[in-house]
């Protein structure tokens, strides 16, 4: 049985208390779905410094709040390609700086990470970094420069190449935003809660890659992501767990991840237990 901790969107809430907890926990592997800081209040370097203190394997996929500026975010929201290119200047330097602060934490994106833990052989496939959800290629200037990806089709093709290059038959996908195809209501696991008409805000390239993995004979054990926060903008709570086609989909974005319960501060993460028999997950409030 492999025990995996999933740390949802951190948004500045990860410190020495978390480091002490995870370093003494029975977790074999930590998956971090991104959004260390916030656009307007940086502080991601302090979070990165804390993450760098973890003494276990940690995979981190950057989200839309990591190494991007408010101007870049506006360019994405307005879908202004020229403005996105203009405001992307400097992102590569910010990525390099954050990578240095993260130390031995593995920076992920279009990457494959094989593991054999407790005799169980599996691979984590990291999806498209910096996703903002929906049918757009967010932050495409950086993706084009770094990965040669200039369309969702190219992104799907690169993800499929990762799958083809993975000898393991057992896969876990790690993404900032989850795949499309899991519902279009506001409460859906990656449904849109900031437009009255709602809609499916999953990543279509990730959906395509997952389907490809299955047709290639792989077993897709779990898909782990965040981004679409559990607390809905208009009130209510998002579904965070879906079982479909033999795969468990989990949205770890419980934001804020530190909150009060019974007048005490508590901290959230998810615990996956993975084995040949399948995957179970539970919300951890500690
Ligand atoms: Fe977030
Ligand atoms: Fe996000």
TL;DR of this structure?
With 286 residues, this protein is of the alpha/beta class.
Written overview of the protein:
The structure is a single chain. The strands form 2 sheets. Strands 1, 2, 3, 4, 11, 12 and 13 form a 7-stranded mixed sheet that branches. Strands 5-6-7-8-10-9 form a 6-stranded mixed sheet, with helices on one face. With 286 residues, the protein is of the alpha/beta class. The chain has 8 helices and 13 strands. It is globular. Helix 2 runs parallel beside helix 5 (91-102), helix 3 packs antiparallel against helix 4 and helix 7 packs parallel to helix 8 (204-215). It has helices spanning 16-24, 44-51, 70-78, 81-87, 91-102, 140-147, 152-164, 204-215; strands spanning 2-7, 29-32, 58-60, 106-107, 111-117, 120-126, 170-177, 219-226, 241-244, 247-251, 258-261, 264-275, 278-285. The mean pLDDT is 96. A hairpin with a 2-residue loop joins strand 5 (111-117) and strand 6. It binds fe (ii) ion (2 copies). One fe (ii) ion (FE2) is lined by residues 9, 35, 63-65, 176, 227.
SSE topology:
Blueprint: E1 2-7, H1 16-24, E2 29-32, H2 44-51, E3 58-60, H3 70-78, H4 81-87, H5 91-102, E4 106-107, E5 111-117, E6 120-126, H6 140-147, H7 152-164, E7 170-177, H8 204-215, E8 219-226, E9 241-244, E10 247-251, E11 258-261, E12 264-275, E13 278-285
Parallel strand pairs: 1-2, 2-3, 3-4, 6-7, 7-8, 8-10
Antiparallel strand pairs: 1-12, 5-6, 9-10, 11-12, 12-13
Helix pairs in contact: 2-5, 3-4, 7-8
The chain binds fe (ii) ion (2 copies).
The site of one fe (ii) ion has 8 residues, from loops.
């Amino acid at each position: 049985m492999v025990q995996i901790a999933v740390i949802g969107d951190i948004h500045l809430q990860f410190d020495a208390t978390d480091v002490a907890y995870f370093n003494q926990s029975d977790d074999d592997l930590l998956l971090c779905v991104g959004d260390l800081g916030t656009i307007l209040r940086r502080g991601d370097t302090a979070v990165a410094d804390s993450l760098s203190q973890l003494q276990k394997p940690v995979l981190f996929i950057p989200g839309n709040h990591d190494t991007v500026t408010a101007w870049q975010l506006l360019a994405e929201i307005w879908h202004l390609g020229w403005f996105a290119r203009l405001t992307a200047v400097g992102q590569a330097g910010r990525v390099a700086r954050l990578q240095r602060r993260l130390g031995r934490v593995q920076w992920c994106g279009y990457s494959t990470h094989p593991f054999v833990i407790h005799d169980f052989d599996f691979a984590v496939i990291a999806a498209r970094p910096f996703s903002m959800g929906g049918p757009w290629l967010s932050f495409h200037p950086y993706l084009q420069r770094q990965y040669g990806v200039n369309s969702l089709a190219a992104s799907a093709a690169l993800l499929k190449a990762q799958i083809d290059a993975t000898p393991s038959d057992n896969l876990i996908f790690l993404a900032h935003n989850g795949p499309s195809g899991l519902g279009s209501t506001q409460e859906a696991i990656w449904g849109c809660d900031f437009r009255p008409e709602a809609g499916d805000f999953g990543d279509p390239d990730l959906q395509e890659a997952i389907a490809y993995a299955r047709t290639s004979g792989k077993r897709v054990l779990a898909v782990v992501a965040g981004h679409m926060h559990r607390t809905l903008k208009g009130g209510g709570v998002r579904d965070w767990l879906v079982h479909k086609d033999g795969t468990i989909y989990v949205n770890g974005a419980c934001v804020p991840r530190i909150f009060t319960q019974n007048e005490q501060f508590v901290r959230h993460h998810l615990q996956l237990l993975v084995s040949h028999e399948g995957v179970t997950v539970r919300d951890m409030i500690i």
